[in-house]
């Protein structure tokens, strides 16, 4: 005789969600960051796997989330500063504050002492201060725009400023202080030059001209088929070579920091 055994379906009781309030500060006594924070919440139960399961992502300032009781990892990121913490959500609402121990870095540069540089020609790379065994530094932020404020953990950073695409480069070690904005203006020794092949000084540029710009040591900095190319060069001595209708013309010239000017190569009569 076969007895039929009836099993009652398992009843899953959903746990009541609790509110979790999250906010971040650069320092313990600094103001709450009102925007620009990336919040990520991960399941702590997946910590034994190779990759944590991301449950929630949000961007902004202070955030409130309704979460089922349990254990979670919360990661707060602001710029290049961040903090992670394991939290336990239980039967009461929870407020968590994250102190990022960071400050801000704002970069710009001039040519000469007070000549501004167009933003489109200026970029910054930020590296760790420490030099690795390879002789290089670890790159943290590439192509940072002028006057862009980025958060970094407190410490010293190596900044490389690039003016244009060629040899106008300066470096500086800058200190990021806790809860403060480091506003740095670097100084380039360079200028913006426009090249023109002309039949008389101040005359119209001759079309269909190819250019080569060489350093004092003969290194080719730029080759161009533009009628009047414009480029940025570091202070120093150079030679401009212009080719037109199989004829070749050259002109030595001096670049002085902050003196943006035209370099005219004259076609002899």
SS strand fraction: over 45%
Number of helices: 0
- The class by helix and strand makeup works out as mainly beta
Tell me the series of helices and strands, N- to C-terminal.
Answer: EEEEEEEEEEEEEEEEEEEEEE
Alpha-carbon distance between the two ends: 121 Å
Helical proportion, percent range: under 10%
Q: Output the strand order for the largest sheet.
A: 3-2-5-6
Low-confidence stretches: 1-8
Q: What summary fits the major beta sheet?
A: 4 strands, antiparallel
Tally of DSSP β-strands: 22
Shape descriptor: elongated
Arithmetic mean of pLDDT: 91
If you compute it from the alpha carbons, what radius of gyration comes out, rounded to the nearest whole angstrom? 30 Å
Describe what this molecule looks like in 3D.
It is a single chain. This protein is an all-beta fold and 269 residues long. Helices cover 0% and strands 59% of the residues. It contains no helices and 22 strands. The protein has strands spanning 18-25, 37-43, 54-60, 63-67, 70-78, 81-89, 94-99, 102-111, 115-116, 122-131, 137-144, 149-153, 155-163, 169-176, 181-188, 190-198, 210-215, 220-224, 230-234, 236-244, 247-255, 261-266. A four-stranded antiparallel β-sheet has the order 3-2-5-6, with no helix packed on it. Strands 8, 9, 12 and 15 form a four-stranded mixed β-sheet that branches.
């Amino acid at each position: 005789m076969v007895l039929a055994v009836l099993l009652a379906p398992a009843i899953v009781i959903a746990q009541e969600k609790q509110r979790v309030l999250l906010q971040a500060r650069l320092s313990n006594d600094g103001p709450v960051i009102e925007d620009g924070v990336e919040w990520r919440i991960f399941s702590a139960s997946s910590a034994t796997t190779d990759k944590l399961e991301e449950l929630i992502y949000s961007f902004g300032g202070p955030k409130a989330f309704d979460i089922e009781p349990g254990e979670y990892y919360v990661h707060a990121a602001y710029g290049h500063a961040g903090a992670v913490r394991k939290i336990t959500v239980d039967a009461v609402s929870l407020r968590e504050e994250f102190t990022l121990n960071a400050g801000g870095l704002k970069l710009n540069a001039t040519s000469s002492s007070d000549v501004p540089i167009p933003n489109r020609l200026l970029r910054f790379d930020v590296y760790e201060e420490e030099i690795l065994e390879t002789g290089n530094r670890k790159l943290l932020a590439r192509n940072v725009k002028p006057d862009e404020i980025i958060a970094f953990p407190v410490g010293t950073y190596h900044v490389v400023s690039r003016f244009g695409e060629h040899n106008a480069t300066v470096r500086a070690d800058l200190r990021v202080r806790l809860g403060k904005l480091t506003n740095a203006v670097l100084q380039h020794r360079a200028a913006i030059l426009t090249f023109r092949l002309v039949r008389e000084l101040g005359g119209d540029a001759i079309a269909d001209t190819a250019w080569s710009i060489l350093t004092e040591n003969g290194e080719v900095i730029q080759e161009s088929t533009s009628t009047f190319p414009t480029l940025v060069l570091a202070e120093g001595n150079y030679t401009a070579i212009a080719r037109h209708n199989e004829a070749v013309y050259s002109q030595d010239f001096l670049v002085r920091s902050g003196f943006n000017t035209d370099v005219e190569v004259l076609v002899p009569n």
